[in-house]
Amino acid sequence: MTIGQDYLSDVMTKLARVRDTQAEEIAAAAKICADSIAGDGLVFTFGTGHGGFAALESFPRTGGVTGFRPIVESSIALMHHVLGDQGTAQYRFMHTQEGYGKAILRSHQLKDGDSIILFSHSGINAVILDMAVEFKERGLKVIAVTSVPHSSQVASRHSSGKRLYEVADVTVDTGIPLEDASQFIDGLEEPVGPTSTSIAVAVSHAINASTAAELVSRGITPMIMVNTNSNRTKFAHQQNDRNYAELWRRLRNREFSAPVVK
To answer: Where is each SIS domain found (predicted)?
Structure first.
């Protein structure tokens, strides 16, 4: 096999493990999401760095359910600059700063019935834990997509002393090992081929699809995003505009609370 084939085989093995061991957790996560959407709330999704990719895949995305709401903070989501504006040094600093996660949430006008999916391979950094703790303190549900094998071997970087999987109501364990990168090449000391992002994105879609199925089982027809690059372009744009209008209605139907100023 080539290194590329080995890598893809490893991803398939890891996906099969999630399929075979995390079905109940994905179903439980979908019930939480369906509760939020059926109750006129939102399912927020968030991750820092590469965890943000899985959060972004929740909406707007072909086949995605209206009611998911990604939170994107460019200062801790964009690392491709490396140097200069929003560079790696800033990212390394910001995502470890306790209190920043709560500040982010103050801008999103949470209300009763909302929930959040937090994507974090390690599940130990301050911003992620800030958000998890804040949701729990408000009596709102937290879903974690994280690696328990990795997280359980490293210390929390939050004053709570908790890792994400220790705070969440439901944890979908990606099972990715501590090093993440999975392929070893003779003559190269460090492994290549990270797998955490591929698995997290797949889990994101699995939860989203399961949420749609859960809503249908309750007699509720979810509003679904439609692919515009097909033979139904006009219909797709019309349907997606209805989806966007529904999202705007849910956002508008919230009491404004000004951010806390100290």
So the answer is: 33-220
Provide the β-strand partners of residue 143. 117, 170
Q: Give the span between the Cα atoms of 74 and 51, in whole angstroms.
A: 13
CA distance 81 to 96: 19
Residue 60: asked if its preceding bond is cis (omega within 30°), the reply is: yes
Q: Which helix (H) or strand (E) holds 19?
A: helix 3-21
Residue 259 lies in a domain: no
- How many domains are there within the chain? 1
Question: Mean pLDDT, the chain, as a whole number?
Answer: 92
Tell whether 257 is covered by a domain: no
Give the pLDDT confidence of 73-90 residue by residue, as tens digits: 888 877 777 788 778 888
Domain limits at 57?
Answer: 3-251
pTM for the full predicted model: 0.94
How does DSSP classify residue 66? B
Q: Residue 127, SS3?
A: helix
